[in-house]
Amino acid sequence: MALQPEKTYAFYGWETALIHAHHPEFPGVDTPRDLYDLLLNCWDLDTCAPRLRAKWSKDNPTWGQCSITAFLVQDIYGSRVYGVPLPEGGFHCYNDVDGCVFDLTSEQFGTEKLNYTSNPEQLRTTHFADQNKYARYCLLKERLLSKINAPHEGKE
Question: What is the number of structural domains in the chain?
């Protein structure tokens, strides 16, 4: 039997994103790669930041999803959330779990390279002061939990 080649990803840090979840609320979401695969079917226009919705598409599902995704990652893996300062203002959020740095939504930037070093920590209290952002985070979390807890076809 031939071995299947390892699946590759395009998000920043995917090669080393092999940390394991520590939260029992998310069974089956072992590594960030597992989480990314599930989120591909959770991200949509409703979870996208309102100011970025005009550019969201199914071809670029990570567009406008950074902070809510990074804080969901924090729930699952216990990470710190950091933010790359953006030229137009604000921050692009990503995660650091004990030195394992990854960004599940980096694909939204295409070939642009972001600097993932020496960035300010982002706090959920600050981000979730925006009620719309908090509602989008809750929606994303609800969708993820629904995917995790859905009965799998073919199983009895």
Answer: 1
